[in-house]
Amino acid sequence: MGQRKQGGRSVNGASILSTLPEEPKKILIAANNFAEREGSYTEAILLDIYNGRERRVTRAPARNAQLIADHSGTIRYAFSNNPENDNASEIHQKNG
Amino acid sequence: MPLRSTKKTGEGWELVSSFPSTEGSILPVGFKPDNESIYIIDNAQFDVETLFELNPKTGERKEIYKHPTVDISSLEMDKNGNLVGIYLEPDYPLYVPIDTASAFGQSLDHIHNTFKGYRVNVSSVSKDGALMTLSVESDVSLKIFFLYQTQTKQFVHLADIFPAVKAQDMAPMTHYTLTVRDGTSVPVYLTLPKQGQKPYPLVVLPHGGPHGVRDYWQFDAYVQMLASRGYGVLQVNFRGSGGYGRDFLYSGYQRWGLEMQDDVTDATLWAIAEGITERDSVCIFGGSYGGYASLMGAVKEPDLYACAIVYVGVYDLEMMLEEGDIPFTQAGRNYLDQALGDDRVDLYQRSPINHLEKLTAPLLIVHGALDQHVPLMQAEALRERMDALNKPYEWLVKPNEGHGFYNKDNKIELFSTMLTFLENNLPSQPAAE
Description:
The complex is a heterodimer of chains A (96) and B (433). Helix content of chain A is 0%, strand content 54%. By secondary structure, chain A is mostly beta strands. In chain A, the strands form 2 sheets. Chain A has a 4-stranded antiparallel sheet with strand order 1-2-3-4, with no helix packed on it. Chain B has a domain at 171-425: 3-Layer(aba) Sandwich (Rossmann fold), CATH 3.40.50. Chain B has an 8-stranded mixed sheet, with helices on both faces. Chain B has helices at residues 3-9, 103-114, 221-228, 246-250, 259-273, 289-300, 317-322, 330-339, 344-349, 377-388, 408-425, and strands at 13-19, 26-31, 38-42, 50-55, 60-65, 72-77, 83-88, 94-97, 119-125, 131-138, 141-149, 154-160, 173-179, 185-191, 202-204, 232-236, 282-287, 307-311, 363-368, 394-398. Chain B starts with a helix and ends in an 8-residue tail after the last helix. Chain A binds chain B through residues 21, 37-39, 41, 58-64, 68, 70-72, 76-79, 81-96, and chain B through 1-2, 4-6, 8-9, 11-21, 24-31, 33, 35, 38, 56, 79-81, 127, 328-331, 334-335, 338. Strand 7 (88-94) of chain A pairs antiparallel with strand 1 (13-19) of chain B, so a sheet runs across the interface.
């Protein structure tokens, strides 16, 4: 979380990837740092919704990528219009 | 090359599909219950977005659904990943049921049958499936929320998003598909006021974006504001608009001021030919790209528009390549290259600011001083040229607004300024008492 301020919040946007039905206290979210000029590499974060603790799960291979989790909450795909490849529509698959 | 970023992360990512931005895309939307096969929405293989099931291990694909003319809007899935239905927006909202056998599928069917003629969105389902929250909306109604009890099939009203807006006072929207000068089909939405009669004074309202954006059959505060004062409103999904397939979308690239504009012109001529309105009774108003299209309409078709309102618009395409937050990023520069190209002579020609000597319509210029997307200097450049040509205009710039007015007081001032300007240049019919 390079640009995130210690103990505080910079300009982050997040969305829910999975409510993780098997883990009542935790959800899986995708987060982007809006302060990064070219858009950040989307991060998947395991968030404890009772104490706010976060654990980084993985980082997308492209900026502003949309992450897709399977039913177990495992990140399996990243979709992006990759600005480093002339906005090409790319799918990355996560193997392990 | 695209694989560079894969190597950089070192987290097991592998590039499995890549399409240049002119050749469509494949979007994975969710896993099937087996956690292996995925639903993908693909607009690379066919012109419109098509739903497939894909097994990534075997590469086997199965086509599930393709509409003849429009893209897929969204999917209804149950909590296990079973596909229940598909939402589309051909003319009015359409729900295509896929699973009508499961309890969830039957509930969805019942909900859609109960709220025929509305756009329905199921926002949440309880773990045991007994309760759902949903919203319904229409051309004359903002979202109304309900709790649905699946056992008793009872709907409990929860809340209206904007209770002061009474559906019976709002003006309905009708969809038409027009055939324009080169034979292309162009969808439009027409809203007629509840007061007065044909021919109505008409405001043509080209949407912003423009690429990949479209107008829908839905409540729109600007449309209803105009209709409530006796104006018909014509919204045109000119080429370049999204939702109608790849060819229609891509046919707008680098055609600003050309076919994209002529589609708006031809829709206006259709409204005149149909007697919905008449010559000298039409104004044009739009924001952002719609501001571009409004000024371009006024200079390209000076006999067609009796007045023009340009709102947070782009008037100089060469300036657009340099200023604002779009050229600030690589993704934005890629977009500009695709949408506008970089032929300076061509961009000069397609910039309405360079054709103001042809402008005869009274002009209202509106901008937010803090607009980062289309900076105020677009409006200031327009004002400078108008002054140099000694042409009159009205000017409304608010210091605390960005790309569109959101502050309540500013919005009231915008609406009342617009209505006074319209009343002076396009009188509406007196309200029936």
